[in-house]
Write a structure and sequence with these properties.
Layout (H helix, E strand, L loop, with lengths): L4 H31 L4 H28 L9 H20 L7 H23 L19 H29 L12 H27 L6 H20 L5 H27 L5 H25 L7 H27 L12 H23 L3 H30 L1
Helix pairs in contact: 1-2, 1-3, 1-12, 2-3, 2-6, 2-10, 3-4, 4-5, 5-6, 5-7, 6-7, 6-8, 6-10, 7-8, 8-9, 9-10, 9-11, 10-11, 11-12
């Protein structure tokens, strides 16, 4: 029996929600892994691949086609992609903690790459006749947003390129291959995913989504600055990681993108009269981005001997648990309003408590790291676990109720 447009849309929505639900679970797992002191080799797969990119994949399947005035070409693509992303993440985590045979790392990297190929191939085929996003799907009543929408759309092919490059470098590293002049493991590759894929997608989708959610506007020149810097910065960071002038230029560009996006978010907040819990989380995420930029510039321009090792941990926490995570938390609370939940104890108050715990936990952990006060770090990490638990409780409750 043929699948009609309504069924196709329902299929994409259902599997998009499944991606987000899995990502939320990984967020909680990441916070617990950090709180219990697991190494970064184990926590990065949970935080970046598991939480950030699973949510990114899930929402991109529904948002990107509409932003290019298209419908997803293969509605069941998210269902095919999800098992590969799940296996790739769990395998990378297991390899990071030293579980399983030596081949596990290569197997998980292969699974992750296959999932990324599905994602890029299907979205690429969906927008094949509109690759630059000139057709934006902008409504007739919002034609004033079309210029910003086109600038944001232009960044999305670059996001997909970063994703494939990062996945390819990961598997090359696991197989012992060393492409000339390119890193295959460590923080440089993590920056390809976190800055090149995730942060750039936050900029691109953020400039399309946030003005509509908050009924606000943004200067197209600021959007061009943020998107342009966000496109070039991650590449320079990766190819010359902590080495020389290219790294410093990349750090400067990435800082420019983060500061510019923060300025835009503050502008949205000042313009809107919609004081929802999600908006406060997004504002906190933007503030974290400013601190990420400041620390990144410190790493780029100060001698390595003058930067304490704890600063790198603070940078990691602010980037993944602050800028990316809080922005995602805020946006998901807009997509899935806590007030719609009918279960007692789940609602706006729970969502607000989750944001407070996440922000307080992040602040305590970062201050504790930078000031070398371990009790503050420990307290902050477990506060973050509490926040992630409340966040998961809210979203999973909403998802279960919608599935009935």
């Amino acid at each position: 029996m043929a699948t009609g447009p309504g069924n196709a849309t329902a299929t994409v929505t259902r599997w998009s929600r499944a991606f987000v639900a899995v990502g939320v679970g990984f967020f909680l797992a990441w916070q617990v892994a950090v709180a219990t002191g697991l190494s970064r080799a184990a926590t990065v797969p949970l935080g970046v691949f598991g939480f950030v990119l699973h949510v990114v994949f899930g929402k991109a399947y529904t948002l990107v086609p509409s932003y290019f005035a298209r419908e997803l070409a293969v509605p069941r693509a998210p269902a095919v992609h999800l098992p590969f992303a799940l296996v790739g993440t769990i395998g990378a985590f297991a390899a990071g903690v030293g579980l399983g045979p030596p081949i596990l790392g290569a197997a998980s990297a292969t699974s992750w790459l296959v999932g990324c190929l599905v994602f890029v191939a299907v979205l690429g085929w969906t927008v094949r006749d509109n690759p630059a996003g000139r057709e934006t799907g902008t409504g007739a009543t919002e034609t004033h947003r079309k210029r910003v929408d086109r600038i944001a759309n232009a960044a999305l092919p670059v996001v997909f390129a970063y994703l494939l490059v990062g996945a390819s470098l990961s598997i090359a590293g696991e197989l012992g291959l060393e492409p000339p002049g390119l890193p295959t493991t460590g923080p440089a590759v993590t920056h390809v995913f976190a800055a090149g894929t995730a942060a750039l997608l936050v900029f691109a989708i953020g400039f399309r989504l946030l003005p509509r959610l908050l009924v606000a506007s943004v200067n197209p020149l600021l959007v061009s600055l943020v998107v342009g810097a966000g496109i070039v910065g991650p590449a320079l960071l990766a190819v010359d990681f902590r080495s020389g002038s290219l790294f410093r230029v990349g750090a400067g560009l990435q800082a420019t993108a983060l500061v510019g996006f923060g300025v835009a978010v503050v502008g949205f907040h000042r313009q809107t009269d919609r004081r929802r819990v999600g908006g406060w989380a997004i504002l906190a995420g933007a503030a974290s981005g400013l601190l990420v930029a400041a620390l990144g510039l410190t790493f780029a321009f100060l001698p390595a001997s003058s930067v304490p090792a704890t600063a790198f941990d603070a940078h990691y926490r602010l980037a993944v648990g602050g800028f990316l995570a809080l922005t995602i938390v805020g946006v998901t609370y807009h997509f899935y309003p806590p007030a719609v939940a009918s279960v007692p104890g789940i609602g706006d108050r729970t969502a607000r408590a989750s944001v407070v715990a996440l922000v307080a936990g992040l602040g305590s952990a970062v201050v504790g790291s930078l000031s070398a006060v371990p009790p503050l770090v420990g307290t902050g990490r477990w506060l973050s676990v509490l926040g992630a638990t409340l966040y998961a409780g809210v979203l999973w409750t909403i998802f279960l109720e919608r599935a009935r």
